[in-house]
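hiii, so i know i said id send this last week but things got crazy w the move. better late than never?? heres the sequnce for the chain we talked about at the cafe, plus the structure i predicted for it. fair warning i was half asleep when i ran it
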Amino acid sequence: MRVLHILVCNYLAGSILSFFTSPEFSLFPEASAGPSLWLLGLTVLLGVLFIANMVVYSRSIDRVGMGVSIAAMRMSLIFPIAVSLFVFGEAIRGITYAGIMLALGSLLLMVPRIRTKSITGISDAWLPILIFLMTGFADTGLKIYEQLFSDQISEALFVSGIFFISFLVGGSILIKRREVHFSFKEIGYGVAAGVVNLYSSIFLIYALKLIPGSIVFPIVNVTLVVLGTFIGILIWKDRPSIKQCSGLGIAIISIFLLIG
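okay and structure toks below
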């Protein structure tokens, strides 16, 4: 299966579902003030980043290995946490700072035991750096929307716009390559992934409205990694290394510190 084809189906399905379930959707829409140019610019930027990041991530796994790629994506948490604390002035307790530091450390410790490929050139070396930057900027963009623009359009319509831009970018690339045919399996995987990605993005924004971003981002990422580790142990009989077990323990402690 081809990654870009699945991504295009993913973003089209997510965009359509999110649009028709948004509060703004109506068969007989009333005239109202449109979103600001800043919000439109943020939506376009995030739409480009979402699909570009996934394409680069897929290429990075192939060229430099999964371990480095995953580590780069996980450490991108630094961006939204820093923006939440130092730009939007979120006030947290000292114990929460400790939880954040432990969460970042645990994410590195729990990187899968997969042999890292040697980086053969400058172009390969840029791949994890791009993942680090694009993932961080994408997460930060959701925080910016929540703080500055959430009163203009709903979360569902905002994410629908992001996904639609991602679909346009990916679709344009496929048209240019003349690869517009899709297999049933690619469509199926794309639609399923679109539903999951859509609601994970929307629920993340909901969480940002209720809890400081400096707490939400590490909790969400660490919790997903911990659940994934336990699923791997129970279902696929994975055998974590001592380093991963240490990271798992630290991750659980960090969650209690962050929500305490």
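btw The chain is about 75% helix and 0% strand. thought thatd interest u
miss u guys!!
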